[in-house]
Fold these 2 entries.
Entry 1:
Amino acid sequence: MKKTVSIIGFPMDLGAGRRGVDMGPSALRIANLSEKLTELGIDVLDLGDITVKIMETQNQGDPNLKYLDEIVRTSLKLAHRVEEALDKNYFPLCIGGDHSMAIGTLSGIAAYCRKKEQRLGIIWVDAHADMNTHETTPSGNIHGMSLAAAIGMGHPDLVNFYVPGRKVDPVDVVIIGARSIDAGERENIKKAGVTVYTMQDVDKLGIHRITSRVLKQFKDKVDHIHVSFDVDSVDPSIAPGVGTPVPGGLSYRETHLFMETIAECGCMSSLEITEVNPILDNKNESAAFTVGVVASSLGMKIL
Ligand SMILES: [Mn+2]
C-alpha cells in the first residue's frame, strides 16, 4: 500500500527551557529528510512550517504555563493540519520543535479518530515522561506537560484543547526509554495508570521484546498507532543535539531496531519527531541520525 507522507514543520521552542529546537525542522530538512523517504519509494508532500512567533516578541505569562497563549494559537493550526492530512489519507510526519507540539499533533489525531470511531494508542519514546501539570511542574515549561494533557491531566486550556476532554485512554499509552522523571510526574503516572518501560527495563528485557509486546498489545485493541519520538530518548553520545540531553539512553542500534520493528508491523499511522536542537549539535549529526531513524520507521531495511 503506497502512502503519501505529509511533512508538517512546527518550529516551536516556547515550550522548552533551552533555545534552539525551533531550528529542528530546518536541521531535519537539511539532513535530506524528504530525499531519504523518496528513495524508499514514498510520495512526500512537504507542507512547510507553521509560523510561530519568536520568544523575544512574547510575554511569558503565567510562570507555571510559560507562553501558553502562543502555544495554544499555533497548536490549533498544527492540530487542524494533522487532521486534514489524515482526512486525505496521508501519513502525517510532524517535525519539531519542542515536545509541546504533541498537544497539537495528538489533538488533530484524536479529532480524526473520534470522527472515524477509531481507538488511539500512543508510543511515547522519551528520556522524560512529559507527565507534569501546571501544578507539579518544576520549570513551567509546557513541553513537560503534553502527555499529561493528552490523558486529561492538567490545565483546562490544554486538556480541552481542540476537542473536549482527554485525547487518549491512559491504558493505551506506553512510554519507552524514560530515565529522568520528576517527583510529581511519578505520582501522575501512577494515578493515570500509564505503562512505562524505563531504560532499566530496556537494559533487562531488550528493546525488541518490549516493542513487540507493545505492538501485540496494541494490535488487538487499537486502530491508530501514533509514535511520538523525542530524540532525547537516544543516548547523547549518538544524538547530542537535543533539547534536554540525559545520559544512559537508547543506543544507535536500539533506536533503529525499535523503528524497524514498528515498520515490520506496518501498523504506525502517524509519527512526530521532537527536540532536535542544532545549537547543541556537531555538524548536524543528530538530525542526520534522526532522518535515518525516520527512514527505518517507514521501511528502510539493512538488506
Ligand atoms: Mn519529551
Entry 2:
Amino acid sequence: MVKMLVSYYSRSGHTKRMAEEIAKAAEEAGAEVDLLVLEKVDVRSLMDYDCLVIGSPTYYGQMAGVVKEFFDRSVKIHGKLAGKVGGAFSSSGLRAGGNETTVLSILQAWLVHGMLVMGTSGADHFGPVSVGEPDEAALKSCTKYGERLVEYSSRLSK
Ligand SMILES: Cc1cc2nc3c(=O)[nH]c(=O)nc-3n(C[C@H](O)[C@H](O)[C@H](O)COP(=O)(O)O)c2cc1C
C-alpha cells in the first residue's frame, strides 16, 4: 500500500481545502494518507513515505517562507528521499499571480532531493492551483491529482 503525506501551510484556509481534497482522493484510491499542517511535520518523518505532497500559498510568486524554511531543514536527510514521488499545489490571490511558479518551486526542491515528479497533459500541468478559495474546477483538479499520484506511486513500488 502506498504511504502518502499531504502537508500544507495555510493562513486563510485555501491551501488547506486543496490538501483535504487531495488526501481524500488518495485515500479513496487506496493509499494510507497522513494529512498534516507543515508546522507539525518533523523532516525526519519524510523518510517514512512513498509519496510526499506539499502545498503552499503563493507568496511573491514562490513558496511561503515557512515552507522554504522546512525544505532548508530537510538537508538533515539529504539523499534519503531519492526515488520517492513528490507533488505540489498552491493557492494564489490573482489568476496569474505566480501559482504555477510556486508549484514549480516546490517540485524543484523535490528534484534536488532526487525525487520523481509527475506532470499532467491536461489542465494544471505542474500540479493543482486555485485562485483564492478553490472552486469546483480546482477541487476536481485536486481529486484527479490525488488519484494519479497514488497510481504512479504504486506502479513505482512494484
Ligand atoms: C506575504 C504574502 C504574499 C503574497 N504574494 C502573492 C503573490 O505573489 N501572488 C498572488 O497572486 N497572491 C499572493 N498572495 C495572496 C495569497 O497567495 C492568497 O491569498 C492565497 O489564497 C492564500 O492561501 P491560504 O488561504 O492557504 O493562506 C500573498 C499573500 C501574502 C500574505
